[in-house]
Amino acid sequence: MHTDSSEHAAKVRTFFDRRVDAYDAFYDPPSPLLRAFNRVFRKAVILRRDQMLTLARQHGCRTVLDVGCGSGRNTVWLARQGVERLVGVDISAPMIEQATDLARRAGVSDRCEFRRLDFIHLPRGERFDLVAAVGLFDYVLDARPVLAHMASFAEKVVYGSFPGWTLVRSPLRKLRYALRGCPTHFYRRGEIAGLLEELKFGAVQVQPVPSGHLAWTAR
């Protein structure tokens, strides 16, 4: 995960440092019952991952920067689908350890590199065909500088998932996370489109999914 304010970042990092296994279970549930639950109630987790691959194939992307990579599930999955080089960045050291181990066990360590740092401090210079942030903007204090930093690394596509605001579910989620010390943020469709248009990177698309939106700008 990643944020931009030091205090905000510390809260998010502490939250995810303590919940590596719980977070990872979203992607690889330990029981058939949980897998069935995820297919119904957490469908967006799969949709947002699959859209990364769709965009990579549509735009001929061979390299990917995965911002807020967490336990590396999406990064390793993309490697197994044929992406040639991937770098995952996350603020949580236990998440990076888990991701590194996952890539080793999947036999894709030669194509996956994981770095523990707050993305906003990643030095500019490297370039990637696709720069993605999946499940990140839920915990970002200000999306604007993060998206701008993402665009500075991107050759072809900037892509992100954004949790949407609903009258009942969003306040409950915000309260639940706040009680655990983790701030959360939500976005409306027009706000997302405006943020990506500000980048002046390329054509902008915003696609609704359960619980939010997928959005990208591509050259």
CATH architecture: 3-Layer(aba) Sandwich
Strand order of the largest sheet: 3-2-1-4-5-7-6
Report low-confidence residues grouped into runs of 5 or more: none
Rough shape? globular
Amino- and carboxy-terminal Cα gap: 26 Å
Topology, pairings included?
Layout (H helix, E strand, L loop, with lengths): L5 H12 L2 H8 L4 H10 L1 H16 L4 E5 L5 H8 L4 E6 L2 H14 L5 E5 L11 E6 L9 H9 L2 E10 L5 H11 L9 H10 L4 E7 L2 E7 L1
Parallel strand pairs: 1-2, 1-4, 2-3, 4-5
Antiparallel strand pairs: 5-7, 6-7
Helix pairs in contact: 3-4, 5-6
Produce a short descriptive summary.
By secondary structure, the chain is of the alpha/beta class.
Structure overview:
By secondary structure, the protein is of the alpha/beta class. The protein has a single domain, classed as Rossmann fold (3-Layer(aba) Sandwich). The protein contains 9 helices and 7 strands; from the N terminus they run ααααβαβαββαβααββ.
Defining key terms:
globular, 9 helices, 7-stranded mixed beta sheet, 219 residues, Rossmann fold
